[in-house]
Amino acid sequence: MYINFSELSACLAGQPITLTSLEYRLLKVLTRNSQTVLTRQVLLEKLWDADENYVDEHALTTTISRIRSKIETNQHSYIKTVYGMGYMWIGGAQK
Predict the structure, then answer these.
(1) Is residue 66 within 8 Å of 21, Cβ to Cβ?
(2) CB burial string 1-24: b at 16+ within 10 A, e below
(3) Backbone phi and psi for residue 61, each to the nearest 5 degrees, phi listed first
(4) Cα distance between residue 65 and residue 62, in whole Å
(5) Cα first-last separation, the chain
(6) Measuring CA to CA, how many Å separate 53 from each of 11, 22, 63, 73?
(7) Which residues pair with 26 in a beta bridge?
(8) Contact, 54 vs 65, CB < 8 A?
């Protein structure tokens, strides 16, 4: 998997992936904090943009789910749910 945050482009197995701006922002936060559990509260605070467009918990859950459906395969997992805590970028670990 390849993500270019400056150009807002992504590919998986050489095929382009379409991501929303919120999905890119969430991926950027996760990948910059790789192998670190980010609580839902921390993620929500980081996704609250400069224009104060608030992202609620349901939107966060939905966005994580949409990203997973676009980038994860039967063989590889990129985002780990740490139950009771939050999410962690694991970068394509074998399932």
Answers:
(1) no
(2) bebeeeeeebebeeeebebeebbb
(3) -60, -45
(4) 5
(5) 16
(6) 28, 11, 15, 31
(7) none
(8) no
pLDDT, mean of each 10-residue run, the chain (95 residues): 92 93 93 95 80 74 95 90 95 73
Amino acid of residue 64? I
- Write down the residue that tokens 């780990």 correspond to: 80
Distance CA 20, CA 10 (A): 11
CB 12 within 8 A of CB 71: yes
Count, residues in the chain: 95
Structure tokens at 14: 């050489």
Taking the model in full, what pTM does it have?
A: 0.88
